[in-house]
């Protein structure tokens, strides 16, 4: 039977009057394979950020479980640089589901309990995001990533105008210590009409020397290295020197000897991303391996099957997600095609946090306290120094915070605009290893309230 003419007229009128009608319908996920029954909507698809270069970023929107129209919008950016916000953030940390074989299991501590979560695969070449012009991959940097992320948001808000006036937060972890504040700064400088309220970054790279050199004190204080090794690790050759030399392709004999001694004492049976765990860890930690890939140490001992990679490479999952593989044969947690300018690791971003705070943007920096990759020691020093530089008085003195009457970490607040918190027992990817405590911290951040105490 031939379609009636009125159908085409109706669709044309709807497309003209409500430009988001057709695009939202096309991006709406009907149901993910193996997904349990849910009460919220999901969307996924592409936003073209560069028409000439045919560059497109892939997103996954998970609406809040209840009353999504009254909940804020939260953008999540994973680190790397070059790792997936969907594979790591959504499916291994705080999204609504976790893959298990052919099924998706409900995550009881999903962040969409309190917010509409927007996961972005960035830059192009990460996850399902792509550039048809492959020369783009040969030299990707922080500036390109921030500008593409801004272009994504501009077009995404046009596609979903109901979110434009919502309270908007940008969150992330690890190398997100670059992605998150740089994007927030660009939003402010560009006078974009986004209702940006705050940023939160976990175990972030903020300042190369301070962050990496705090590793010696962390190893020593946890009994992973001896007094004598701690001495040479801080006086003869420190970790930032080692990283810089390896990055430049020339580790000198002195630093090589120090690095070997540290590695020998720490042993290959300790995972730097959570030094207390004695169980196998999933390849969710591949995103932090990217930050550590130039280090002359052993690989992480992975003995848990990567359910997320298996799931996201299924043909039926790609179809349900409206995703495609462009220029790659499979989806991976961290990109194998993006050649990121690693010198960007040395660009400090701590001062950007200061400018954001002065602009009235709330800033939360948190640390999983068992992470030796970006230890809390350096992060706390940087945040405390920033507070002094800004002249912020302590509004909440350093104290414990609680989750279900147990100590969940420690926190300090400066001038009600800048906050630091640790998550007790958490790894580099805090929501993965401490989901309950991470959700409590997330809720307090969104509400602008101090973390709970006795």
Automatic annotation (TrEMBL):
Keywords assigned: Carboxypeptidase, Glycoprotein, Hydrolase, Protease, Secreted, Signal
Alphabetical list of InterPro entries matching this protein: AB_hydrolase_fold, Peptidase_S10, Ser_caboxypep_his_AS, Ser_caboxypep_ser_AS
Signal peptide (residue range): 1-23
Chain ranges passing through the membrane: none
Stretches of the chain forming a coiled coil according to its record: none
Enzyme type, top EC level: hydrolase
Enzyme Commission identifier(s): 3.4.16.-
A Pfam family it matches: Peptidase_S10
UniProt-annotated location(s): Secreted
Family from the record: Belongs to the peptidase S10 family.
Protein name: Carboxypeptidase
């Amino acid at each position: 039977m031939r379609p009636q003419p009125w159908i085409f007229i109706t669709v044309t009128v709807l497309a003209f009057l409500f430009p988001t009608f057709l695009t939202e319908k096309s991006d709406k996920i009907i149901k993910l394979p193996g997904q349990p029954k849910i009460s919220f909507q999901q969307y996924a698809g592409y936003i073209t950020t560069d028409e000439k270069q045919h560059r497109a970023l892939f997103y996954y929107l998970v609406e809040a479980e209840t009353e999504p129209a009254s909940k804020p919008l939260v953008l999540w950016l994973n680190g790397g640089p070059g790792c997936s916000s969907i594979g790591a953030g959504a499916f291994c940390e705080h999204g609504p589901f976790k893959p298990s074989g052919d099924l998706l299991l409900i995550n009881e501590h999903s962040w969409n309990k309190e917010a509409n979560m927007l996961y972005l695969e960035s830059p192009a070449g990460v996850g399902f995001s792509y550039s048809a012009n492959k020369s783009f991959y040969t030299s990707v940097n922080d500036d390109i990533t921030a500008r593409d992320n801004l272009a994504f948001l501009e077009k995404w808000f046009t596609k979903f105008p109901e979110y434009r006036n919502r309270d908007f937060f940008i969150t992330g972890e690890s190398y997100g210590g670059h992605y998150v504040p740089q994007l927030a700064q660009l939003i402010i400088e560009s006078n974009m009409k986004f209702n940006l309220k705050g940023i939160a970054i976990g175990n972030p790279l903020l300042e190369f020397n301070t962050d990496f050199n705090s590793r010696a004190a962390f190893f020593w204080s946890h009994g992973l290295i001896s007094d004598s090794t701690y001495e040479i690790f801080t006086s003869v050759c420190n970790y930032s020197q080692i990283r810089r030399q390896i990055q430049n392709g020339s580790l000198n004999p002195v630093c090589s000897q120090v690095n070997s001694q540290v590695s020998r004492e720490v042993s290959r049976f300790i995972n730097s991303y959570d030094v207390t765990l004695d169980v196998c860890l999933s390849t969710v930690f591949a995103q932090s391996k990217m930050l550590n890939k130039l280090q002359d140490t052993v690989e992480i001992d992975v003995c848990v099957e990567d359910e997320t990679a298996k799931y996201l490479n299924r043909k039926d999952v790609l179809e349900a997600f409206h995703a495609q593989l462009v220029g790659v044969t499979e989806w991976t947690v961290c990109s194998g095609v993006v050649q990121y300018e690693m010198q960007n690791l040395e660009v400090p971003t701590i001062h950007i946090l200061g400018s954001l705070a002065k602009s009235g943007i709330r800033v939360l920096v948190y640390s999983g306290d068992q992470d030796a990759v970006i230890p809390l020691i350096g992060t706390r020093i940087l945040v405390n120094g920033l507070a002094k530089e800004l002249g912020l008085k302590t509004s909440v003195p350093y104290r414990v915070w609680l989750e279900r009457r147990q100590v969940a970490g420690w926190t300090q607040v400066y001038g009600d605009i800048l906050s630091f918190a640790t998550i007790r027992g958490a790894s580099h990817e805090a929501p993965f290893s401490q989901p309950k405590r991470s959700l409590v911290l997330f809720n307090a951040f969104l509400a602008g309230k101090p973390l709970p105490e006795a």
